[in-house]
Every structure is written in C-alpha cells, then in structure tokens.
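Appendix C: a fully annotated inverse folding record. The material below is reproduced so that readers can follow the format used throughout the book. The structure is listed first as tokens, followed by the designed sequence.
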C-alpha cells in the first residue's frame, strides 16, 4: 500500500463505471426478458449455462435438508445458535407498533404497521457459502412477521446447495429454497415463474449482475439496496496497533478484487508500519490473490494533519464499515455523519459485525450511507395512514379543504366536500 496525503487522495478521480454497466445491462436485460417469457425453462437453462449443472428440480427437497444436517459440525451449530440469539436481540429493538391519536369531535388519526406478504432473499453461492447472510436477512423478516420467505441461491457443481446455508436457513425458518442465481433469480422473484412465486421485495447481496438486475426490476418489485463491493475505512491514531489495522483492512480485501480498504491516520510512522504489516500478512492469506488485487487496486493509506480532517474525509467517503481505532473512540461518534456501521475501539473489528454482534451486515456501499441505512426489520414492514373524522369534525374544516382544492383547479375534490356540507 502506498502512503498518500489527503490532497493526493482527493485529486484521484474515480474510474467511470458507465461503460462497464452498459455491457452488464445488455446481458441482464436479455436474461430478465428470457425469464419473463420462458419461466422455469429459462432458469434451468441458465443453471446449465452459468452454474455448469443440469437441474431436474429448482426446489431444495426435504431429503436435501436432512442430508445437510448430517454434514455440518457441532461447532458450526453452536456458532449459528449464538449468532441467532444476538441478531434477534438487536433487531427486536427495531420493531415498530401501530399508533393512533384521538382528538376532539371524534377524530382519530394514526399509522398502521403491517408486514409484507412475500419476500425473496438472494444468498450468493456456487463457489462460496454465506450462512451468516442467511441469518442477517431471514431473522429481521421473521421478526417483522412476513409469512412467506423464499431464498434463491446458485447451486454447486453437483446440483446441491451448500449444507451450511441449508442448515442456517432451516434453523431460522424458510418456506422454500430455490436453486437459482444471478440476474435470472432476481427476474424470477420479480415476475414469477411456474414454480417461483412473485415476491413483494427482493433483499440480499450479490455480484454486479445481481445488483444491476435489482436496479432494473425496481418499481415492479421493491428492493433493499443496490450493493457494490465491500468497503472498510479505518481511522487510526498512535494508540492503534499496526497489526490489528492491517488484519482488519485485509478482512475486506479478501472479499473481492474490487473491495476497498482505506486507513486514515494522523501518524505517519503508523502508516508505514501498517504498510509493512499488510505485505507481511498478505503472504499468509488463503485468498491472497484476491486480497492482493484489492489492495493494489483500491488500498489507500492516507496521512492527515488532524482527526478533524480525518472525519471530514470519512463523511465524504461515507464508508460501508467504519472503524475508529483511536483514543476515546466513543467520544467521536458525533463527528461521524455518514457510515453504514461504526466499530469503536481496538477490540471491535469488522468481522465481529459480520458474524456475531447482532447489527445487520447488509449495509449501504459506494457512498450511499449518505442516504441509506443497514437492512433491518423496517425493511420488511410497511405503513398505512389511518384517518377517521366525524361529521362535526369534517364540517369544521370543510371550507378550508374546498378553498385549497379550488385553488389547485380540482373542483371534483371540492365537490366531494361540498356535497357533505350541503346534504341538509
């Protein structure tokens, strides 16, 4: 990693992704249309083309669930048990209740909170397995009260789903798991097929094709967010340990060649130590090729003059994961305006949030933390406004309603009030 000043960092223009997205969109739109036209047959053909497997059935069977349970360790079962407890405890605090206000003359106003009917959860798969993402998406949906929850995940080369994903899903509860991935899975959830029911909302992370497909079907169906590559930004001072900082930077770099790992520090000596540590630790990583590409392409070590300057830069970046490895980190929470998740101190590393602490690890990326939030129970609920007026209450405000309606040229609105006012 090369050490840079804040001026150098700010001068570097981000490479435009417009051309890349145009190429992806061409493929994605063709896939969406094919799924809409040919349904299950399209999904089976894409499984053969992209996943290298000819499926006989899109649905995971009960026998496959039972087989999966025999393949996982007791240590794994205990880990997901503890993770579930923490995730449920955190997300339960997000539950919203319907509320009502009773005013004079028989007026009742309020908000009714209800769960969505049907949700589709995308879980990346094929070469990798993400049971933690199963927990993070299914648990808040269950807490919200969603009755029908489905999972889409790509099959392995043997036509099966990773057993850890199946066991995690079974432990939380899922209506059905479909063997489908990529843009075709998004299309199936958005429009339905002979086997796959149309859902109200699609959630869960995925590759560029999944992300672009979600963008294109939005409006026909709701989505959680359009997630980009993983990001971590660490603000560190002289109290931070270089080996901790390096390890945490690499925890995101191993995700993807396009992942971004940034360290902002007020201490140049620490920056040099972190650069050395990153190189030392990279050599020992199992996923060193991926992590090396990420660090070389997107790794940043930025030296600033003050913490104030550091937080100005943080709020401009609006990172997915922000670690404050500084003295009295909690005292600086007010300095952070934009971040998906904030980790405080040297013993709150990002993987703690990925797996165990409880807050959701599905987070806004690519600067969208400036206007977006982590996935939560609220993503699976919707609100309806409640209005009840008595005749007396309506007549008190009738003339005002008519005035505003007539001013806007909506005379039928005005007459809807007038007919009640003049009914006698």
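Designed amino acids, in order:
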């Amino acid at each position: 990693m090369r050490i840079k000043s804040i001026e150098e960092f700010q001068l570097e223009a981000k490479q435009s992704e417009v051309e890349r997205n145009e190429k992806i969109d061409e493929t994605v739109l063709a896939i969406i249309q094919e799924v809409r036209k040919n349904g299950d047959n399209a999904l089976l053909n894409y499984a053969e083309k992209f996943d290298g497997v000819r499926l006989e059935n899109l649905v995971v069977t009960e026998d496959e669930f039972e087989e999966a349970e025999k393949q996982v360790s007791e240590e794994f079962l205990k880990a997901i048990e503890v993770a579930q407890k923490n995730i449920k405890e955190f997300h339960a605090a997000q539950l919203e209740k319907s509320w009502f206000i009773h005013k004079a003359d028989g007026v009742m106003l309020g908000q009714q909170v209800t769960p969505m009917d049907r949700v589709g959860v995308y879980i990346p798969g094929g070469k990798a397995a993400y049971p933690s993402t199963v927990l993070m998406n299914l648990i808040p949906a269950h807490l919200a009260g969603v009755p029908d929850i489905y999972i889409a995940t790509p099959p392995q080369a043997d036509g099966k789903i990773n057993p850890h994903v199946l066991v995690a899903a079974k432990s939380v509860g899922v209506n059905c798991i479909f063997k489908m991935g990529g843009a075709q899975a998004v299309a199936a959830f958005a429009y339905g097929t002979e086997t796959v029911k149309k859902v109200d909302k699609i959630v869960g992370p995925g590759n560029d094709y999944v992300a672009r497909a979600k963008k294109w079907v939005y409006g026909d169906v709701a989505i959680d967010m359009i997630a980009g590559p993983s990001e971590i930004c660490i603000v560190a001072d002289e109290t931070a340990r270089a080996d901790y900082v390096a390890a945490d930077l690499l925890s995101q770099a191993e995700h993807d060649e396009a992942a971004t790992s940034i360290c902002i520090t007020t201490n140049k000596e620490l920056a040099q130590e972190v650069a050395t540590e990153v190189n030392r630790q990279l050599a020992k990583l199992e996923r060193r090729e991926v992590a090396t590409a990420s660090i070389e392409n997107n790794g940043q070590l930025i030296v600033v003059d003050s913490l104030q300057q550091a937080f100005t830069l943080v709020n401009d970046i609006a990172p997915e994961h922000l670690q404050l490895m500084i003295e009295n980190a909690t005292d600086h929470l007010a300095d952070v305006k934009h971040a998906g998740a904030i980790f405080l101190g040297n013993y709150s590393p990002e993987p703690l949030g990925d797996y165990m602490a409880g807050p959701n690890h599905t987070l806004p990326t690519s600067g969208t933390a400036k206007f977006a939030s982590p996935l939560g129970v609220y993503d699976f609920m919707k609100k309806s406004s409640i209005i009840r007026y008595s005749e007396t209450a309506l007549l008190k405000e009738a003339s005002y309603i008519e005035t505003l309606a007539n001013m806007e040229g909506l005379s039928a609105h005005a007459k809807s009030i007038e007919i009640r006012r003049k009914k006698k």
